Task: inverse folding
């Protein structure tokens, strides 16, 4: 089992917070409307518990996913409920809330852009604090059953991850909060390495 | 492995699990299959069936503690378990579902379509065992939840945004 120390957790928390701040700025500039991003909770979750965290295997979720490679490889995904995904699309496209009721190409591309911004800021901040070269891919957006998405994500990591780093992520404009979760999937050796080097620097 | 003899109505079959039952009120459910494949086998004459939920094509001797996780070891195990319980190979009806390609991640090569590889291997193993596939719902890019009634061999498949369908 992989764990992190209080100190490692604090540094990670700082990295997440910093990246959320810069992501929020970039998002706000993109849509000309103020968006804030917060991460109220950070932790590690075991593979067996992660499906529950997503509301059960056949629960419908939206997954925005980017892989990364460089010194180490893995996947970062942002998971939202169907309702949250629609709300976020409405905010991004400047719609009245409730306009979006299905995820079309436009909506997918808007969510993909959120993934681009949030994940690349996260990886860049992580990279600054670890000196690891982390290159994100372009985003992919899929809406389907949590279990189906999750098992495919895990298989894409190659060496099966044991614990997954997650951060609750709340997008808000002035009047609405949208809950999501950001997950970092990586092989156990990669996660260990990240935890080691953030403390070393 | 779970052998269901109680009055429970449904048992969830997770990754790498399999289950065999004669109970008429029983339904096995594999929730949210992505690239995984659910293999359902039934001998209607004596009313027994079993389901296996495999995740990868072959074992490669890496993780032999969970043989059902792999098509090449899981499928023979399911068949043998049923035969041990009195099922006859020539009466076995086989249905398979799953093997979708959920993620088309940029940067990951096309050959990493694990769903297709799972389906290919499942078909090959079944053929090698001399079992025919009665019906299937495989491939595509949508997740599936599969309901299997072991005593009758009935298989229902649910995908998001679609009606429950029988295969």
Result:
């Amino acid at each position: 089992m992989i764990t992190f120390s209080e100190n490692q957790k604090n540094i990670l928390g700082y990295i997440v917070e910093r990246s959320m701040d810069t992501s929020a700025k970039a998002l706000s500039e993109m849509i000309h409307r103020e968006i804030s991003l917060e991460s109220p909770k950070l932790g590690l979750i075991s593979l067996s518990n992660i499906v529950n965290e997503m509301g059960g295997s056949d629960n419908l979720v939206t997954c925005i996913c980017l892989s990364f490679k460089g010194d180490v490889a893995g996947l970062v995904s942002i998971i939202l409920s169907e309702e949250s995904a629609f709300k976020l699309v409405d905010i991004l496209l400047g719609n009245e809330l409730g306009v979006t009721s299905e995820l079309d190409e436009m909506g997918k591309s808007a969510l993909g852009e959120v993934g681009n911004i949030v994940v690349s800021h996260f990886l860049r901040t992580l990279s600054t604090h670890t000196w690891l070269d982390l290159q994100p891919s372009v985003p992919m957006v899929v809406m389907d059953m949590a279990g189906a998405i999750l098992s495919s994500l895990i298989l894409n990591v190659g060496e099966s991850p044991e614990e997954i780093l997650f951060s609750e992520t709340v997008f808000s404009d002035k009047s609405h909060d949208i809950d999501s979760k950001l997950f970092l999937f990586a092989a156990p050796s990669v996660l260990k390495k990240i935890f080691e080097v953030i403390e070393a620097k | 492995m779970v052998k269901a003899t109680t009055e429970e109505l449904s048992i969830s079959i997770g990754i790498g699990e399999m289950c065999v039952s004669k109970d008429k009120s029983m339904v096995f459910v594999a929730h949210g299959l992505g690239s995984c494949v659910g293999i359902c086998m039934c001998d209607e004459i004596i009313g027994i069936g079993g389901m296996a939920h495999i995740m990868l094509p072959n074992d490669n001797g890496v993780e032999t503690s969970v043989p059902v996780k792999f098509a090449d070891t899981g499928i023979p195990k399911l068949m043998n378990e049923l035969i041990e319980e009195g099922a006859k190979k020539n009466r076995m009806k086989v249905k398979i579902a799953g093997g979708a390609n959920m993620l088309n991640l940029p940067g990951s090569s096309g050959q990493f379509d694990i769903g297709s590889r799972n389906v290919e291997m499942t078909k090959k193993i079944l053929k090698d065992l001399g079992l025919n596939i009665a019906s299937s719902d495989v491939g595509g890019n949508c997740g599936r939840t599969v309901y299997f009634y072991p005593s009758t061999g009935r298989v229902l498949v649910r995908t998001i945004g679609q009606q429950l369908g029988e295969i």
Q: What stands out?
A: The longest helix of chain B spans residues 114-128. Chain B has one domain: 11-166. Chain B is about 15% helix and 35% strand.
